[in-house]
């Protein structure tokens, strides 16, 4: 069976740990590969190589770095179908969605191609007699990136293009559930001319993450995953003196006002609720509808759900399987819980007809109505194709519900009332807001990140916050001595 190995200093390496994980094809329900789990010695050697490469790469001219970024962008663009197929085979999402993920990642590479402009500092001439001040931004060193299963290409690309463009070297620890995409990307970097040791991939589990958290030569950690682990990474990384941004889980609400176009709203609820089988951190999982339009909206969503095709992502389905059997069973257990807790099950994905192998990790689109805020299907992040409708009497009640939830990643309001939308964008306690846009993922030159339990740390991903995260500022005060600077003066200069 194929073994997915680590990528260190420009070549594939297996560790001596003997520990491995299974990688599944979720549409077939079979083990397709195994992935090597790094031991401490393997991680140490990767960090050592990345540290050595930093000395050279950080001193490489901006012009040269940008040429390599452009070459990488060209290769990634020309091979994006190949990468999408790898993603579908391990994650299960449909091919068009996998391609969409690569395209969103490419946007960050394109943003990073503008690094010479983004790194420009300020210059103030003559702040005092013959004294000039200027600011520069410099790279941090070896940056670790720990990513989740749901976007095996896009999420690492939120970080590494900017980190590398700014002169850092990186060690990526992808999810062990779909590890191959990152190795594919590593080979493209090599082909693009990136020096060995600048882009490294370590596969593994908690052992690898814990070593990265404590290794003295790791300068920063960019983590994306569930909230409990994001908090753990943030607390332990910062305790060890590292710069950390840790993006966590989500429960994204769509607030529907009675004046909204209910057909367009129902389309959006379907796309944002069931795209990628609900395994998106920006998926809509709670539709909060202001009465009296609840019945109408639920009926429109239900009609559309009946037309969705669940099946093998390579064969033209709308929605693929869930990533593993364990995850599929966990999501199905939430459907059981919703029924037990008294929500109205409008569509039951447990009985869905599927176009795919019987052993695949299937769960069809599921819709609950009359969900109460006390129910586990409302409180918890389910991360599957389960949409809950909560009915409220007013805008204020809906807003309070959203603001009381522990997560604050994304949200959306659907309305034709510009004043209401403006009030919502101002009052809602969530990091990314859509106005008639159900999945408001910011473009690469803005920054991505949530509030509350959806993000630990001060920096969001990519955009100018990404450039700041991967660099540190230095301010230089300079003068070229001439006789006018002579004399003893123990005070601050006054002019
Ligand atoms: P996860 O937390 O299980 O895993 C994320 C990473 O942490 C993986 O690389 C994994 O190997 C590692 N990990 C797992 N257990 C660990 C442990 N005990 N100690 C240290 N590291 C550990 O998340 P997942 O299931 O891969 O991804 C889904 C989650 O990610 C959801 O909660 C989703 O909302 C979140 N997510 C958030 C965003 C965002 O931008 N906020 C984006 C994508 C995904």
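^ Assign residues to that structure.
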């Amino acid at each position: 069976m194929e073994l997915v190995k680590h990528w260190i200093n420009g070549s594939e390496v297996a560790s001596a740990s003997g520990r491995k994980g299974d990688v599944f094809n979720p549409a077939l329900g079979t083990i397709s590969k195994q992935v090597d789990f790094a031991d401490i010695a393997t991680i140490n050697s990767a960090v050592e190589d990345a540290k050595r490469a930093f000395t050279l790469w950080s001193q490489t001219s901006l012009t040269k770095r940008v040429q390599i970024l452009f070459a990488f962008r060209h290769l990634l663009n020309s091979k994006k179908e190949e990468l999408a197929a790898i993603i579908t085979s391990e994650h299960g999402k449909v091919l068009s969605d996998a391609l969409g993920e690569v395209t969103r990642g490419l946007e960050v590479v394109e943003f990073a191609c503008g690094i010479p402009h983004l790194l420009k500092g300020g210059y103030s001439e003559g702040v005092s007699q013959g004294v000039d001040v200027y600011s520069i931004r410099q790279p941090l060193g070896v940056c670790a990136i720990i990513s989740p299963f749901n976007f095996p290409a896009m999420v690492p690309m939120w970080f590494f293009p900017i980190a590398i463009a700014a002169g850092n070297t990186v060690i990526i620890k992808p999810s062990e559930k779909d590890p191959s995409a990152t190795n594919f990307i590593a080979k493209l970097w090599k082909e693009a001319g990136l020096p060995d040791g600048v882009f490294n991939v370590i596969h593994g589990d908690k052992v690898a993450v814990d070593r990265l958290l404590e290794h003295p030569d790791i300068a920063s950690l960019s983590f994306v995953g569930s909230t409990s682990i994001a908090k753990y990474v943030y607390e332990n990384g910062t305790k060890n003196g590292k710069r950390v941004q840790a993006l966590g889980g989500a429960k994204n609400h769509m607030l529907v006002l009675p004046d909204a176009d209910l057909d367009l709203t129902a389309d959006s609820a379907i796309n944002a609720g069931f795209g990628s089988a609900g395994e998106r951190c920006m998926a809509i999982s709670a539709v909060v509808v202001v009465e009296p339009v609840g019945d109408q909206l639920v009926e429109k969503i239900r009609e559309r759900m009946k037309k969705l095709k669940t099946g093998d992502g390579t064969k033209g389905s709308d929605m693929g399987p869930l990533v593993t059997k364990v995850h599929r069973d966990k999501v199905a257990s939430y459907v059981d819980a919703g029924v037990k807790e008294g929500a109205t099950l409008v569509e039951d994905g447990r009985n869905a007809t599927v176009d795919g192998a019987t052993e695949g990790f299937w769960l069809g689109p599921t819709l609950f109505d009359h969900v109460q805020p006390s129910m586990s299907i409302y409180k918890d992040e389910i991360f599957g194709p389960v949409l809950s409708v909560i009915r409220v009497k007013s805008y204020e009640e809906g807003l309070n519900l959203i603001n009381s939830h522990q997560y604050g990643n994304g949200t959306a309001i659907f309305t034709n009332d510009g004043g209401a939308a403006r009030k919502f964008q101002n009052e809602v306690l969530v990091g990314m807001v859509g106005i008639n846009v159900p999945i408001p993922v910011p473009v690469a030159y803005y920054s991505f990140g949530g509030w509350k339990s959806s993000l630990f740390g001060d920096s969001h991903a990519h955009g100018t916050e990404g450039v700041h995260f991967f660099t540190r500022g230095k301010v230089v005060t300079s003068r070229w001595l001439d006789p006018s600077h002579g004399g003893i003066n123990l005070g601050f200069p006054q002019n």
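The first strand starts at residue 3 and ends at 4.
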